[in-house]
């Protein structure tokens, strides 16, 4: 079965990375660091949700105390 274009690209990239590593010790090879995963919800939506939930509780408590 023939390789797809995407497979050829990835194989070429892998071969290039392996050639760059040849003859180097582990200390000389740049370690890949994983980025910290991002939250699936934007911070603005978290703030908005907090305002709706806790603001609603605050307004309800104030209305029960003064009315």
Q: Strand share of the residues?
A: under 5%
The average pLDDT score comes to 88
Count of spatially separate domains: 1
Number of strands: 0
Secondary-structure element sequence?
Answer: HH
End-to-end C-alpha gap = 78 Å
Largest sheet: none
Dominant shape: elongated
Number of helices: 2
- Low-pLDDT runs of 5+ residues are none
What is the helix fraction of residues, given as a range?
A: 55-70%
Task: Note down, in words, how this protein is organized.
This protein has 67 residues and is an all-alpha fold. The chain has one domain (5-66). It is built from two helices and no strands. The protein is elongated and about 80 Å long. Keywords: Endoplasmic reticulum, Membrane, Transmembrane, Transmembrane helix. It is found in: Membrane; Endoplasmic reticulum membrane. Its main location: membrane. Pfam families: RAMP4 (PF06624).
Quick description:
The protein has 67 residues and is mainly α. The chain has one domain.
Relevant terms:
single chain, 67 residues, mainly alpha, 0% strand
SSE layout and pairings?
Elements: H1 5-21, H2 43-66
